[in-house]
């Protein structure tokens, strides 16, 4: 079987996933800001706080302790 056919078959049946595309810190911060904004706009304060906490932790972990200074915590998350 050709490699392409094998890969396509594996993808159709969920046996193989493609590697995650590398994301820059700026892209990660923009994604966090977008998710946070959506939760805040929907009025879901508890979820917004979770998004901020988990997103900030994940960014720090994946980017050697970096943070997103332009992304502020949602109100009430002190």
Entry summary:
With 78 residues, the protein is mainly α. It is built from three helices and no strands.
List the helices and strands and how they pair.
Layout: H1 3-12, H2 25-41, H3 45-62
Helix pairs in contact: 2-3
What does this structure look like?
This protein is mainly α. The protein has one domain. Helices cover 58% and strands 0% of the residues. The protein contains three helices and no strands. It has helices at 3-12, 25-41, 45-62. Helix 2 packs antiparallel against helix 3. The longest helix is centred in the last third of the chain and has 18 residues, at 45-62. The protein is globular. The relative contact order is 0.15. Residues 1-13 have low confidence and may be disordered.
Low-confidence runs of at least 5 consecutive residues: 1-13
Q: Give the overall silhouette.
A: globular
Strand content: under 5%
Rg over C-alpha atoms, rounded to the nearest angstrom: 18 Å
Order of helices and strands: HHH
Q: Helical proportion?
A: 55-70%
Number of structurally distinct domains: 1
> Helix tally?
3
**Alpha carbon gap, first and last residue:** 57 Å
Q: Output the structural class.
A: mainly alpha
Mean pLDDT rating: 81
Strand segment count: 0
- How many strands, what sense, and barrel or not for the largest sheet? none
């Amino acid at each position: 079987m050709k490699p392409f056919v094998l890969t396509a078959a594996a993808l159709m049946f969920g046996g193989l996933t493609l590697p995650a595309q590398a994301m820059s810190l700026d892209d990660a911060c923009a994604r966090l800001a977008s998710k946070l904004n959506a939760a805040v706009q929907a009025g879901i304060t508890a979820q917004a706080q979770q998004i901020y906490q988990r997103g900030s932790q994940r960014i720090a972990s994946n980017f050697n302790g970096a943070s997103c200074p332009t992304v502020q915590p949602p109100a009430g998350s002190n």
